[in-house]
Design brief:
Blueprint: E1 17-19, H1 22-43, E2 58-63, E3 74-75, E4 91-94, E5 100-103, E6 107-110, H2 116-127, E7 136-142, E8 147-152, E9 158-161, H3 169-175, E10 183-192, E11 195-199, H4 201-206, E12 221-226, E13 231-236, E14 242-245, H5 253-259, E15 268-279, E16 282-288, H6 295-301, E17 309-314, H7 316-327, H8 331-339
Parallel strand pairs: 1-16, 8-12, 13-17
Antiparallel strand pairs: 2-4, 2-7, 3-4, 5-6, 8-9, 10-11, 10-12, 13-14, 15-16, 15-17
């Protein structure tokens, strides 16, 4: 990208200034698409697998026509019962920390990692040594082994247990009561182990990706950011310097200047419109010459990031006026008053 050398630059290690051109805008767009596509490759699951039993789950096991095998389950302690329940703890067969269940005649069965159907077939094969053609019903009575955590701008933040219904992103948001009016749909962060994925609901829909196919795993943390955290700051020679809230993660340079009243016609230098951005690899500075042909279209296509600073420099005449005012306070205003009829 072409660099702009400012006269009298104080330090050689200052970040280079990149001109905002059509090539730069295309490169920025391509980088955003690559980042979003990489995240989707790891998260989208078209056909979610069935629920697998884990340690802590409580199973309901019934062997038909054999009531002597009923009622041998353990009662879960109130401290280990599901959070938020006030009723009597459920009675059933608790999967221990090793993933095993003790059942009459069958002994210790390793059921962790198996689906309900696989666990039922395993138990039936064990009981078949003592019971002719056992008819077994096995299901998960209480789901306690797998959970996710919802945080941020949702109505009901907190833990959510994963059950036989696949825990997708939409399912988790619905269980949390939906998004708050202040939620930023473009900044939903999924933390999985040591990785972080930034999800944009509107962008997913535009790409034809169903958010209901983003499968969450046990231990995931989903945080919905507030729109107040996605602000852009406009300062310098504009009519109304202010902090602007992004519209669901979208705000162009042209919109930021327009919502601030535009470049000041008296003191602003349209050739020096800067965007200062804090990037992982250091500070980046972009410059737009608003007087050149096609500058308005480029400003509309240049998308800002949260925490960007848009700065409009003062014109040489405005700088001269201010410098002179510091040297001779009130001199210019007195001179103007004398020349008035």
């Amino acid at each position: 990208m072409p660099d702009v050398a400012e006269p009298g630059a104080p330090a050689s290690d200052a970040p280079a200034t990149q001109l905002i051109t059509d090539q730069l805008i295309a490169a920025e767009k391509q980088q955003r698409e690559q980042r979003s596509n990489q995240a989707l490759d790891h998260l989208v699951v078209a056909d979610p697998p069935p629920y697998k039993i884990g340690p802590g789950d409580i199973l309901s096991i019934v062997v038909w026509d054999h009531p002597e095998l009923a009622g041998h389950g353990l009662v879960a302690s109130s401290s280990s019962a599901e959070a938020g329940t006030t009723s009597t703890p459920p009675q059933g067969f608790v999967v221990d920390y090793e993933g095993k269940v003790q059942f009459p005649f069958a002994g210790a069965l390793k059921l962790a990692g198996l689906t309900e159907e696989q666990a039922r077939n395993l138990l039936s094969s064990r009981l078949a040594r003592y019971i002719a053609q056992p008819n077994v019903t096995l299901r998960v009575q209480s789901y306690r082994s797998k959970r996710i955590y919802m945080d941020g701008e949702v109505r009901l933040p907190g833990l959510q247990a994963i059950n036989d219904i696949p825990m997708t992103l939409l399912e988790a948001l619905n269980r949390a009561g939906g998004l708050q009016p202040t939620a930023d749909q473009s900044r939903i962060v999924l933390e999985r182990e040591k990785k972080r994925y930034n999800l944009d609901l509107r962008e997913l829909v535009q790409k034809g990706v169903n958010p209901g196919n983003i499968l969450l795993l046990s231990g995931d943390v989903v945080r919905v950011h507030s729109r107040d955290e996605s602000k852009v700051f406009v300062s310098g020679e504009v009519v109304t310097p202010k902090a602007l809230t992004m519209h669901n993660g979208r705000l162009s340079l042209n919109e930021a200047l327009g919502e601030s009243g535009g470049i000041s016609p008296m003191t602003g230098d349209a050739r020096q419109v800067f965007v200062v951005r804090k990037a992982p690899d250091g500070t980046r500075i972009f410059q737009l010459d608003a007087r050149q042909k096609g500058a308005l279209a480029m400003a509309e296509a240049f998308e800002l990031h949260p925490k960007d600073l848009v700065y409009v420099a003062a014109s040489p005449l405005a700088n001269w006026h201010r410098g002179l005012s510091l040297l001779f306070p009130g001199a210019l205003s007195q001179a103007v008053g004398v020349t008035r009829p």
